[in-house]
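Hi all, long-time lurker, first post. I run a small reading group and we've been trying to get comfortable going from sequence to structure in the token notation. Rather than ask abstract questions, I figured I'd post a concrete chain and ask someone more experienced to write out its structure so we can walk through it together at our next meeting. Sequence below, copied exactly:
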Amino acid sequence: MKVVLLAGGFGTRISEESQFKPKPMIEIGGKPILWHIMKEYSYYGFNDFIICAGYRQHMIKEWFADYFLHNSDITFDFTHGKNDMIIHDQHCEPWKVTVVDTGLHTMTGGRIKRVQPYIGNETFMMTYGDGVCDVNIAELVKFHQKHGKIGTLTAVMQEQQKGVLDIGGDNAVRSFREKSYSDGAPINAGYMVLEPKIFAYIDGDDTVFERGPLQKLAEEGELMSYRHKGFWQCMDTKNEMEKLEKLLAENRAPWKVWKD
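-- Answer (accepted) --
Happy to help. Here is the structure in token form:
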């Protein structure tokens, strides 16, 4: 099953970093967050990736073009007047990576529509290239296959940002407690499984996937949620990037299910 990764936006909310590179290429622990997401899928046996690139798309292509070289033991032999390259050992994942320039200003739905020729008529997965999660992807796929609907998204609880108040009719605060995940509302965390019928719901480049197509699926009863109670974190801001960096540095990164 192929995995589609949305990686074409401008990342304006983390412009301190994204002015130099696409947001999915911002590094956590020395590797792009895109790489971390791919490692999650690879852990569950999914190694065929289609990256929907856009903003500074050449940087994504160049990073993968050099990936094999940077993760191999190589001899460069110039002794016979030629440039012979001998590969002794390589440490790359068994990935097939297709990077597609889906346009600079294309919306999320349009980007998915543009990679349809690379997906074909088969079920595929899709997620955003700026968020990590410890969802069991194998169980997610089983859930999707069992219900038989067009789409499945992973739903997580969004933590409240403020303390919770119990206020009476006389405006007196009767109780106060700190926020908890149970106080939040479920949100779309990505990590979707989609049937090829989804392409019929996407009109073109201006289609925002989260508005038109997903809303229509919901109205038709064709969208299911896989409730995930574990970790999920997007990287919209510099603070969120630093949070992920700290978790990884302290060996407390829940999304890191693979072994080094």
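A couple of things your group might point at:
The first strand starts at residue 2 and ends at 7.
The mean pLDDT is 90.
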